[in-house]
Write a structure and sequence with these properties.
The protein is an alpha+beta fold. The chain folds into two domains: 2-185, Regulatory protein AraC (Jelly Rolls); 190-301, Arc Repressor Mutant, subunit A, CATH 1.10.10.60. The chain has twelve helices and ten strands. The chain has a five-stranded mixed β-sheet, covered by helices on one side. Strands 2-9-4-7-10 form a five-stranded antiparallel β-sheet. Helix 10 crosses helix 11 (281-292).
Length: 304
């Protein structure tokens, strides 16, 4: 049976998963072997109002985003931000020995700390679950040790140092995640470069089709959708491979096409701006000058 759920608090999730009430209302570390979803539900569409960081092995669950699905059989780390929609398909018979950790952190727990702002800048919270982090054996051991450090502090008597110590460990966990994602981008270089090739082909088609005047300049979201990736994941991947974001790649292709048109056609600068999908020529002039260091008219004068 299917069900749509929205958890406003960590306690609500504990109740649904047949877990004891959390020891702290704003943070919880859960042993996956203790999670017991109600057997009457085999598909759950979930929105939660807290951060979720899960290191999962053999948990008998498929996580879906759109048409993409992922089975957590090896050591895989998945991160979900508040308000993200996750769909779980649960096989209650599949996993005889589920294992792993699930860390739930309400944004209020981070309030008035540097991590409250910094956590929003970690792009991997915007990745789809099928873009989850595959951990090597050594990486998994490192991550498990951080989870255990959080567990020890979480289960100790709370004092005025407890929150800062737990937050320090959470930040360490996120920094390791950032490092390991970069490793994943590099070690999967073949598939990563296939994405880069598809991006170049897609941008070439966009800028050579003559449809920009009707469709406008492609957005990062449109490009990511065409490549079946999330915008954050695509930009992170491109930054590792090329040092440039998706938006910068779009602008590079746009300026390349603009230079071609300025040097080889008789179209006015305004006409070129409209052909390239700009609603206002002034916007084209501003972008061109920022990228080429000269105005379109000065650039064109070099070819007259």
């Amino acid at each position: 049976m299917k069900i749509d759920l929205q958890f406003n608090s960590i306690s609500e999730f504990h109740h649904f998963a047949n877990l004891p009430q959390p020891e702290h209302p704003l943070v919880s570390l859960i042993d996956y072997s203790q999670v017991q979803y109600p057997v009457e539900y085999d598909e759950i569409r979930l929105v939660q109002h807290y951060y979720s960081i899960g290191l999962k092995r053999h948990v008998g669950r498929k996580f879906n985003y759109g048409q993409e699905a992922y089975d957590f059989e090896a050591g895989i780390l998945a991160l979900v931000a508040p308000q993200q929609v996750v769909q779980l398909e649960i096989d209650h018979q599949a996993a005889a020995d589920p294992s792993g950790w699930l860390l739930l952190v309400h944004p209020d727990f981070l309030w008035n700390t540097p991590l409250a702002t910094k956590i929003k800048k970690y792009e991997f919270f915007g990745y789809a679950v099928n873009e989850a982090l595959f951990l090597s054996e050594k990486e998994e051991i490192t991550m498990v040790e951080v989870f255990r450090n959080i567990q020890r502090e979480y289960q100790a008597n709370i004092d005025r140092f407890s929150q800062n110590i737990i937050i320090t460990q959470i930040e360490l966990l996120l920094n390791y995640t950032e490092r390991y994602y970069e490793r994943q981008f590099i070690t999967r270089r073949i598939s990563s470069h296939q994405v880069l090739s598809k991006l170049e082909e897609l941008l070439h088609t966009c800028f050579e089709s003559g449809n920009l005047i009707h469709k406008g300049i492609p957005s990062v979201q449109e490009i990511a959708d065409a490549l079946h990736l999330t915008p954050n994941y695509l930009s992170s991947l491109l930054k590792v491979l090329t040092g440039r974001s998706t938006q910068q790649h779009i602008h590079d292709k746009l300026i390349e096409k603009a230079k071609e048109m300025l040097s080889s056609t008789q179209l006015s600068i305004s006409e070129i701006a409209y052909e390239l999908g700009f609603e206002q020529p002034a916007s084209f002039n501003k972008l061109f000058k920022s990228k080429a260091q000269v105005s379109p008219s000065v650039f064109r004068s070099k070819f007259n």
